[in-house]
Each structure stands twice: as structure tokens, then as C-alpha cells.
Amino acid sequence: MGPYALMLAGVIATAIVCAKGLGALDRRYLRIKGTNLIYLHLPWARGLGGEHERHLRPVTVLDVVMVLSVVVAVIAFTTWFIIVKPAPVGLEGSPSKD
Fold first, then answer.
1. Residue 92 domain flag
2. What is the dihedral sign for C-alpha 12, 17, 22, 27?
3. Which residues make beta-bridge pairs with 58?
4. Phi and psi at residue 2, in whole multiples of 5°?
5. Is residue 95 part of a domain?
6. pLDDT tens per residue, the chain (98 residues)?
7. What integer pLDDT is reported at residue 75 of this predicted model?
8. Taking Cα atoms as reference points, which of 59, 49, 74 lies closest to residue 26?
9. Fewer CB near the last or first residue (10 Å), C or N of the chain?
10. Assigned domain for 89 exists
11. What is the number of domains present in the chain?
12. Structural domain span for residue 79
């Protein structure tokens, strides 16, 4: 039970540190720019009919950081999957057992 509790404490501590860091980034952006809102038309904010909203939704710098993090993670995974490890797991040419 000890290693699992230590792992859980590490996950919680990491989440707290990341949240405080993102909060500090948001406050610094607010001080520098005067506002922490970026107006973007988010594709997933549209209705199912595809109509456009009259008012664009405000997006904070934290939203932008999170989206960029996901984009970087997807690019890194795709690069690893295509370039570094192109063969499926188990079919990378291991010697057969005859």
C-alpha cells in the first residue's frame, strides 16, 4: 500500500504545482496585456446546424496553453509512432521460436 500512496501523493502534488504555475502565468499575462481574454471563434462552440454565433466567446490564456499542450503531445506521439516505432508491437522482427 505504501508505494501506491506515495504515487497518489506525487500525482496530487504534481497537479497542484501545475495549477499554481498556470495561475501565475495567467496573472502575469493579465498584468502585461491588461486583459486576459482572447476572442476566438471555437469550432466546437458552434451549434449542430453550423450557424455562427453573433458574440465570440472569450478564451483565457490558460485555454490557449492547454490546447497548445495537446497539439504538442499529438505531434510528439505521431512522430514517435511513425518514425521511431513504425512496426506494430510484437511484429518488430523478433527471432522466431522454431
1. no
2. positive
3. 39
4. -60, -50
5. no
6. 789 999 999 999 999 999 999 889 888 877 887 766 666 666 666 666 556 555 566 677 777 788 899 999 999 999 988 887 766 666 665 555 55
7. 96
8. 59
9. C
10. no
11. 1
12. 2-84
Identify the H or E element spanning 57.
strand 57-60
Assess if residue 13 is contained within a domain. Answer: yes
Q: d(Cα 18, Cα 23) in Å, to the nearest integer?
A: 8
Block residue for cell numbers 499575462:
29
Q: pTM of this prediction?
A: 0.52
Output the pLDDT for position 94: 54
Residue 51 confidence (pLDDT): 60
Q: Which three cell numbers stand for residue 14?
A: 504534481
**Separation CA 37–CA 57 (nearest Å):** 9
| Dist. CA 13–CA 19, nearest whole Å | 10
